[in-house]
Amino acid sequence: MWFRNVLRLHDNPLLNKTCSSEKIESLVPLYIMEDEWFNLDSITISANRKKFLYESLLNFNKNFRIKYGVDILIFHGNSSKIINSITENLDNEFKWLLCDYCPEPDKRHTINKIKENLVNLEINLKVIPAVNTILDVEKVIQSNNFSNPKSSKDIEKIFAEKYEHSPHGYIIGDSLLPPSNLNIDKKKMEVLIHESTISEFYISEDILKNKLMELESKSKITDSYFVGGEDEALERFERKISQSPNFVNSFSKPSTISTNKDDNPLEPTTTGLSPYLSNGCISARMLWNECLKINFNSTHTLPPESLHGQLMFREMFYLLSRSVVNWDNDIENSNCKPIQWGEYDELKIKAWESGLTGFPYIDAMMRQLDATGWMHHLGRHAVSCFFTRGQLWQNWKYGRNVFEKKLIDSDWALNNGNWLWLAGVAPFSMPYYRIYNPCPDSKSSLNVETTNANFIRHWIPELSHFPSKYIFEPHLAPSTIQHDSKCVIGKDYPFPIVDRKQTRKRNLSLFKESNKQLSN
Ligand code: FAD
Ligand code: MG
User: Fold this and answer.
1) Which of 135, 225, 267, 409 has most ligand 1 atoms within 8 Å of CB, for mutation?
2) Which domain does 215 fall in, by range?
3) I need a labelling partner for 66 at 20 to 30 A (CA). Which of 73, 157, 284, 342 fits?
C-alpha cells in the first residue's frame, strides 16, 4: 500500500479499498520520498515546502501508529528502484501494489515503468482513482463526449453529467471513514528495514525528526506560519468551515481581501486550506460535502464565486492538465498562445522574486511568498500579471518556476493552469487588456486594505513609518516625508524598476500585435 500524495487517515480511498479487498491477506504501508525532497541542499524545492512535507509525513505516521499500531515504512530515493528492491526482498509474497492516482506526467511515467517490471514478476498494480480529486480524472477525459473545459459553465456541465444536482450543490457521494483495523505484516516490514540492500534508504521517524530540525536551523524559517499535517488541516477545517457557517454561505472569492486579516497579516481571508489539499492532508471531497451540508436550507453564494466554485476550478485544471499535451509549456500547447515575450531579464526577474521591484504591493506579496510559501489568490493575480502582460513582459514559465519552487500549495496542474490564465494566453484566460494596477487604491479589484496598510508595513519594514497616503507608490512622496518616515527611496527602498504606465501601454500593444500575427 503505497501512499504517494495522500497523507491522511480520513477519506483515504487507498486505505479503504486496500483493506476491503479479499485478494489481499496482509499489508505493508509504504511511503517513498524522492531524493530532491530528502536532500536539504536541493534548490528546486524551497525549505518551506520541504518543512511542510516533513511535518505532514510525521503527523500522518503518528496518526497511523495511534490507529493501527505500526509506523509506515518510509524510504528515500528513486521510487522505481525502491519498489524493485522491495520485490526482490519479499520474494513470492508480494502480489499486489496499490497506490493513489497522481496525474503529473512524471508520476504517470514512473507508474508505467514500475508496471512493466511488475507484470514480468506477476505482481498486480492497482492505481486507486479520485483520491485527491472529486472526479476520476482518467475516466472523465476518456469519456466520448469529453472536450476541454474552458469556463466555469463547462466544468458545471461535467459535474451535471456525473452527479445529481440539489439546490445546494452536486451530490458527489459520502466521504470515507478510516477502516477500524488493518492486517499489517510486521514481519515483512522488519525484513525490509533490516535487509542490507534496502536498509540504507530507510527513514525512521527519528531520522525524519532530525532532518526537520536540521532544516529549520539551516534555512532560518522563521515566519512560515502554516504547519503541515492532517491534524492541522482538520483543525483549520473545523475553525474556518464547520464552525463558520456564515463564512461558508457568504463566501465570494472576488470580494475576499488580498492583504489578509486585519488583526493578523499572516492569516488568509480565504480558507487557507490549499497547502493541505495539495499535499493530501485533507480530502477535497470532505470539504465539498461539509460546504454542501452548511449550504443546505440556507441562503448561500453559488459557483464560480462560492467555495464549491473554487473546488470546481480545481477539478477543471486537473482535467485540463491531463488532457492538454504540454500543459506546462508555452510551445505546442493547444491552451497557450505563443506570445513573443521579451528576452529573459535576470535583473528584473531577480527583483521580482526577491521583493525589490519598488512596487510595495508586489514586493510585499513576493516577500510573503518567500517567507511563508503562501499568497492570496488576488495577490497571485497581481504579481503574475505584473510579471507577464502587465509590466515586465517576461515569459510566464519563469514566474511559474518561482511559484513551483516556493508555494507550499505548489501543484503542477493548478500552478500551470493559473499562470496560463493570468498570462492571458489560454482559452479560459481573462481578457488580456484587463491589467491590474500594481499600485492599488481602496477601489482596486485586488481588494487591498489601504487605510492602515498593515500588510505592507509588516512585509516591508523599510516602509513601516510611511504615511498610508504614499505607501503604495512611495517614490511620489515629497522628500521631506521620505526623510521623516526614515525611508529615502533609492537608498532605503528601491525606485520602481519600470515605469508602470509606459510599460502597460507598450505591453498592451505588443500583446495586440502578437495576437494579430497569430490570427493571420
Ligand atoms: P480558497 O479560496 O479557500 O479555495 C479553496 C480551495 O479551492 C483552494 O484551497 C484550492 O484547492 C481551490 N482553488 C481555489 N482557487 C483556485 C484556482 N484559481 N484554481 C484552482 N484551484 C483553486 N493553487 C494551488 O493550490 N496550487 C498552486 O500551485 C497554485 N498556483 C497558482 C498560481 C497563480 C498564478 C494563481 C493566480 C493562482 C494559483 N493557485 C494555486 C490558485 C489559488 O490562488 C489558490 O488555490 C488559493 O489562493 C489558495 O488559498 P485558499 O486555500 O485559501 O483558497
Ligand atoms: Mg504533492
Assistant:
1) 409
2) 2-134+184-219
3) 284
